[in-house]
Amino acid sequence: MFPQKSGKAKLDEVTRILSDLKSDLDTPKLSSQQRKQQLEQLKVHGRDPTNSDPIFTQDGLRTLGRYAFKEKDVAVSQEALRCIANALLLQPKARQILIDLEHGPDAAEKLKSDSVDDEFLLSRILFLTTYDANLDYTELVNEHHLADNVNAAIQRHADRYTQPRQRAQEHTAPMDLMALSETLKLLFNVTHFHPDLSQHFTPSIPNIFKILTRRDPPGKPLDAPVSFLINALLNLVREEGTGTEHQPHDPELHAAVFPSADPAGNVTHLINTLDSSIRSYPAAELDTAISPLFTLLRRIYELAPADVQTVMQSKLLPSDTDRTQPLGKTSSLPSRLLNLSTSAQTPALRDSIAAFMFELSSKDPATYVSNVGYGYASGFLLSKNIPMPESAIKDAGEASGAGVPINPITGQRLDMEEPVEMPEMTQEEKEREAERLFVLFERLKKTGVVNVQNPVEEAYRSGRIEELSDSD
After folding, report:
1. What is the model's pLDDT at position 243?
2. Cα(249)–Cα(252) distance, rounded to whole angstroms?
3. Which Pfam families does UniProt cross-reference here (predicted)?
4. Which domain holds residue 265?
5. Is 28 within a domain?
6. Which residue among 52, 156, 338, 434 has the highest number of C-beta atoms inside a 10 angstrom radius?
7. Residue 467 vs residues 184, 460, 464: alpha-carbon distances, Å
8. Which helix (H) or strand (E) holds 290?
9. How many domains does the chain have?
């Protein structure tokens, strides 16, 4: 450990170290060990930006950059990279200075190193320069092999996950996981800020899924690196255009997401992760925790072939078993999703779930009501100004997939509903109830959401209304 200094003594020490290192670049006098020790001491001082100002100047970063990107001694180079990474983290202004010194291409080129320490440091430096700086990432991809080097790094991580597993080769050292996480964060930011570059990272999709599906789950389902793997996929699993404007499917993208050996394997793993995540996190955390995963599933469904879409529908929409009770009352994944779609604690997820259920129902209002019940469907359809077909409630109540009539409001099978024990209504009570229903139906018609025939009016027109005598 180096003695800690503060105030002017620290500033003088930082100035001296940088001066000695700069002089050594012009007239080498220090040994590799001495250079490493000087840089280690500078790194310690640089952890607190107070009285470390020379590090964050153009002169200081030029000196560190020459050691980081031109020095052949790996230990010396990595110490300089650590100093730079700390500087970019603590002083955002240092990011543009480093770019102006033209070290962006140097970092992209050096990322081809198979050292996890180099990968961690270089990915972090490049990741930090995606904020508050103007680095030409298109140039880095096209001319300095950034995408190739990122893809190669993720490939090296995925190669640890053989099948059958050889656990000794999987990620166990903290630095391995830290390097993977930084590379995935870099990939996400580059493809987020520059979506036109996403196609260059498509080769990483199978390797990301390989790590996701073969790695033992962490303590919580979405702990690192799972969250970073999912975020990285978010900007890769999509195609240009929307709806009818879609370009022809990208064969490389589809082969990566839906491998021929098991087209639904990747998406099934993601759905299982969603299920375990909803069970593991408190409701207050779900909005933040699982929204990226849910968005990824929606994008995959949009691109999926028909057979994979069918698998997703079977796992995410209520089954006949769910209909033994009113929908949302069982412990299944579809029931939990329906409950979250009306939860005040998950405002972002709430809308996303309702929209996805609508997409899983072929974006057809009648099918949507049949799948989730009018109680859950009505709010979404009303908020989106989607008109309800007149036959929606009637058709929904005729039969479920098993051919058994269902309650169109609750989605429960009618043969599973508990009989309601109520005393016989008096004639006066029946009249009051009929009048109340007549008014409610008239109000419903005026909303324009549902165009229904008032049952009282219909009964009158069909001759089923009986005129009672005055005595009755």
Report:
1. 43
2. 9
3. Ric8
4. 202-239+253-310
5. no
6. 338
7. 76, 10, 10
8. helix 283-303
9. 2
Q: Are 55 and 42 in contact (CB under 8 A)?
A: yes
Please list the helix, strand and coil fractions of the chain in percent, rounded to the nearest 5, in that order. Answer: 65, 0, 35
Same domain membership, residue 362 and residue 267: no
Please check whether residue 150 is in contact with residue 111, taking contact to mean a CB–CB distance below 8 angstroms.
yes
Distance CA(382)–CA(290), nearest Å, equals: 26
305 and 322 part of one domain: no
Model confidence at 404, pLDDT cuts 50, 70, 90, reads low
What pLDDT is recorded for position 280? Answer: 93
420 Cβ contact partners less than 8 Å away, ≥ 6 residues apart: none
Considering the domain architecture, whether residues 322 and 363 belong to the same structural domain is answered as yes
Q: 428 vs 41, which has greater pLDDT?
A: 41
The CA-based angle 199-203-209, given to 5 degrees, is 115
Res. 207 pLDDT band, cuts 50 70 90: very high
As a whole number of angstroms, the distance between CA 140 and CA 29 comes to 35
In terms of Cβ atoms closer than 10 Å to its own Cβ (0-12, 13-18, 19+), residue 119 is buried
- The closest of 389, 372, 270 to 317, measured between CA atoms, is 372
Residue 393 pLDDT greater than 80, yes or no: no
- Per-residue CA distances from 159 to 150, 152, 211, 295 (Å): 14, 10, 9, 28
With a cut of 50, say whether residue 211 has pLDDT above it.
yes
